[in-house]
User: What shape does this take?
Amino acid sequence: MTIEDIFNEVGTSIAGAYASQLFGKPCFKLPNKKAFCCLFEDCMVFKLTGDIHQQGLGLEGANLFDPSHKGRPMKEWVQVPSMHQRQYVALAEAAAEYVGG
Assistant: This one.
């Protein structure tokens, strides 16, 4: 299964989520038009807060999302390598709950 397949499976597992674009990259948004996850450099990226944000950053190889690679990371977005794909659904659920309000 490719990272794209995993991304699509995870994104469509969230009720009401639909495919879109964020910074020219594939993402999933909720009906409120807010993105909660995206695909970037063979990783999934999740918009998180609180304890789950810290848990995501604590995963080996995870870091704050810096799409420009210019040292300007997006503080709420955590880029998680595919080696942690078993965590993706839980992270996506937490991200969707966060952006869904």
Observations:
- Residues 3-100 form a domain with the Aspartate Aminotransferase, domain 1 fold (CATH 3.90.1150).
- The first helix runs from residue 3 to 12.
- The chain has three helices and six strands.
